[in-house]
Amino acid sequence: MVAAPRAVRPRRGAREGADSRAARDAVFEGGAMPGQGYGSAQDHGHVFTGSPLDRAGNERRDGAWIEGQHAKPARRFLALRDLEALVEGDPAPTVAWLAPAELPDGAPEGEAVLLGLDGGEPRFAIDLTAVDEAALAGPLADGRRFAEVRGVAPDLPTDDTAILAQARSLVDWHARHPFCAACGGATTSRNGGLMRVCGDCDAEHFPRVDPVVIVLIIDGDRCLLVSGRGRPGSNYTCIAGFMEPGETVEEAVRREVREEAGVEVAAVRYHSSQPWPFPASLMLGCHAEAASASIAIDPEEIKDARWFDRADVARALDFAAGEIEGESGLDFGVPAPFTISHQLIRAWTSEAEGA
Asked: Among 193, 117, 171, 164, which residue's Cα sits nearest to residue 276?
């Protein structure tokens, strides 16, 4: 008899509503460091990109090889607890890698996810959420601390943020998928944590990535920015939204802009992408040309939408980057330099400067 589907146990403190809005939060709160021009995400220095690890995609299919990595004395562990990452150092933090002897009692080392190899040596992510707090004295020694990834990422080396993006997304995915979506049977980790297999029906499950388009709409020397509903202050940002099944990036851009601002879009040009591990989105950044100018906002999503002159936007960018002391003299602001929205806007203003 096929077992009745069983509900996935949510992570302690998790809120599905919060995670479903996390990619939209990326537009306002976190994402990328400043850069110019077009190219890869790594070219732009985006936060959460540029991992130095070899993910060992072919080797990890071999169960014996995986067991061998778990036995290596030089293996190290990136610890997470309630999806907060263990870091060390202040004011310039870095990821705190734990040696096997530093793992607390009760740490589920057998369930650790292989992130990849660093100079041939294995690096794992391990979830310490279920470990008793009293056992954490070792990991928390020498000033190490658990930090919320979104908050600490702008201060970390870019390589560390890329590793954290992979670790947070995978640890969260495993916690959410202990049971099979097809039959409800228990699943187990395989391939070093890059898949789960159902023990009852043999269904294979893989980590998901949710694509999100984020776009700066351009009309000559002005651009369209929006203020999201529920967001405090007067910051304006780029339009963003999840892609839907059967859509291209261009189609998703046009639909989102039409739905949220009532503006029609002509040509769409890709700029760069950035992983956003809250829980597992991929931000696809674009520039697009406006085909109409009249604005009609969706009041459930957007508080306000306006066209802004390039010169004013450039000043707002400089103010957000701390390059202007005192007041900006403007009635609006833009996201901080580490956000992908800031990156898209900066690239547009820089085009004019280089013309």
From this structure: 164
